[in-house]
Write a sequence for this structure.
């Protein structure tokens, strides 16, 4: 199987959720998704590992998350393990050399990931101890 | 002038920090009676400051704006107070330790030694918090909440370490961190 993206795995799990990727840039987008009643149809893509505004989506039963920065040792990592919700963190595109740089300007890196994943149907693979992976479906 | 009264701020800030909560959870977290909290929440819902989903309250953008405006207006002087800013710098170090310890606690299935180190970190924070309470009296409630949850952990109820749906130590820490960042006007990683 080929993977479009990979990153740190928040925790090992045989759960392998699939859904349409939805990029959530701000609290408003999280509330809008919850109000739509379609939260569980989506894999959530967010920028940071301490994305506090994501908390309502986690409480409402989101099925999986991809972050573009942040480590498993973060608030979001801790919550994903407690909710047993697969979470691929600091994801990067496997077909690109670009990687997240702490303290650097990551705008182009983030934009490329959003362009490659937002709106696509994907599956998360989190059975490996260290690495979480994302494959495209359909 | 901010648009919120102190009581309205306490309740809506509780929603802001918890992200999603019932009136009862909020009353317990902010130290007000449930009917008082319900009255504020109902009025806020009527003014489109918040929404209700499955009995839990979430701030809408106007509600978040009102809470942030209160922080700016009332806590503005704290943002240039060296004592507060130095306190926060020390907190950052403790915060990193705490997050690592909770993660390690999870990965070791609640190892007692890791738990003991984590509880010591929480006790360090509650001790340090007493330096801030003369300036921020409402922070007393964090000390009380931490103490109550640590007591439950000490009694063997491990859910009170970091279960997201109760007043666990990690939840309280998460809320406190968001609160102090708002007081000093620093953004959090998005």
């Amino acid at each position: 199987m080929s993977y479009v993206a990979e990153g740190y795995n928040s925790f090992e799990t045989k759960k392998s959720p699939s859904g349409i990727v939805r990029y959530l840039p701000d609290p408003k987008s999280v509330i809008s998704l919850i109000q739509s009643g379609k939260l569980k149809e989506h894999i959530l893509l967010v920028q940071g590992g301490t994305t506090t505004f994501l908390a309502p989506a986690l409480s409402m039963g989101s099925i999986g998350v991809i972050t573009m920065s942040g480590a498993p040792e973060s608030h979001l990592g801790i919550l994903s393990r407690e909710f047993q919700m697969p979470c691929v963190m600091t994801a990067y595109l496997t077909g690109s050399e670009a990687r997240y740089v702490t303290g650097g300007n990551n705008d182009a890196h983030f934009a490329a990931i959003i362009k490659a994943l937002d709106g696509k149907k994907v599956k998360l693979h989190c059975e490996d101890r260290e690495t979480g992976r994302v494959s495209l479906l359909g | 002038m901010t648009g919120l009264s102190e009581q309205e701020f306490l309740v809506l800030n509780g929603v802001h920090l918890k992200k999603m909560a019932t009136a009862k959870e909020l009353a317990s977290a902010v130290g007000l009676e449930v009917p008082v909290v319900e009255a504020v929440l109902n009025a806020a819902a009527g003014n489109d400051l918040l929404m209700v989903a499955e009995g839990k309250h979430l701030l809408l953008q106007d509600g978040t704006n009102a809470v942030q405006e209160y922080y700016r207006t009332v806590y503005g002087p704290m943002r240039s107070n060296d004592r507060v800013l130095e306190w926060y710098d020390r907190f950052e170090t403790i915060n990193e330790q705490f997050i690592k310890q909770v993660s390690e606690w999870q990965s070791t299935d609640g190892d007692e030694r890791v738990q003991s180190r984590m509880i010591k970190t929480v006790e360090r924070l509650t001790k340090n918090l007493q330096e801030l309470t003369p300036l921020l009296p409402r922070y007393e409630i964090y000390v009380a909440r931490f103490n109550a949850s640590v007591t439950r952990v000490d009694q063997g109820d491990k859910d009170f370490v970091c279960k997201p749906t109760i007043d666990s130590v990690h939840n309280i820490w998460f809320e406190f961190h968001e609160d102090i960042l708002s007081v000093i006007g620093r953004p959090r990683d998005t």
Summary: Chain B has a mean pLDDT of 94. The CA atoms of residues 75 and 183 of chain B lie 6 Å apart.
